[in-house]
Design a protein that fits this description.
Helix content: over 70%
Order of helices and strands: HHHHHHHHH
Keywords: Membrane, Transmembrane, Transmembrane helix
Largest sheet: none
InterPro entries: HXXEE
Protein name: HXXEE domain-containing protein
Strand content: under 5%
Distance between the termini: 30 Å
Organism: Paenibacillus agri
Number of helices: 9
Shape: globular
Number of strands: 0
Length: 208
């Protein structure tokens, strides 16, 4: 468990590279919608690597800037809660559509999550931090956004999406955000947590 707490984002990067190689080697045989969904999965893995490893100081932004924490190294987000929340998002929420690629609303919900990352990182958090960049912004704009647009364009070009799909995807996305992010942080927060972030993960936002 200690190994996973320290290196889950690094393992994600390795998995992402392996997936990219797999998709590239089988580009002509994998159904295009599956390829896009695989790359959507890679997008969240890269996003998490940017947030928690390099540059990696998103926990400092989250705890200090957004929540004005007096103990940003452990509250409200801590190393263990970050791992649990992000692993579930990546390996359940983003991989589930690959089991059912014809269920478009399942694939659309992660796309909406990617767009949400742009709003959260690029606008909300940056305004509060008074910056134009913090970990998560780059992959949200340059990876999540183009892959999301690609997916939407594909399902429209092939007449795969309906109004009902949009409704279900919006509901599923909202429920996932509420349970995994909003309530997930609440359920797992602990002011006395021993699972503290490293100095790198706090960046300039460590407790003075």
């Amino acid at each position: 468990m200690n190994f996973l707490k320290k290196y889950w984002q690094d393992l994600g990067l390795i998995i992402g590279i392996v997936v990219c190689i797999y998709v590239a080697m089988n580009w002509g045989t994998i159904p295009r919608i599956n390829s896009i969904l695989w790359l959507s999965f890679v997008a969240i893995l890269l996003h998490q690597f940017e947030e928690y490893r390099w540059p990696g100081y998103f926990p400092g932004v989250f705890n200090t800037v957004l929540f004005k924490s007096e103990a940003p190294e452990r509250y409200p987000l801590n190393q263990q809660s970050a791992m649990i929340i992000n692993v579930v998002i990546a390996y359940v929420f983003y991989l589930l559509p690959l089991l059912f690629p014809s269920v478009v609303w399942l694939g659309m919900a992660p796309v909406l999550m990617g767009f949400f990352q742009i709003i959260f990182h690029g606008i909300v958090a940056n305004i509060k931090a008074k910056r134009i960049y913090h970990p998560g912004v780059f992959t949200a704009i340059f990876v999540h956004l183009p892959i999301g647009i690609w997916y939407i364009n594909y399902v429209y070009e092939h007449h795969l999406i309906t109004v009902t799909d949009w409704i279900w995807s919006a509901i599923y996305f909202a429920v996932a955000v509420y349970i995994l992010i909003v309530k997930g942080n609440t359920w797992l927060e602990n002011k006395n947590s021993i699972h503290i972030f490293s100095q790198q993960q706090l960046g300039a936002y460590h407790k003075k």
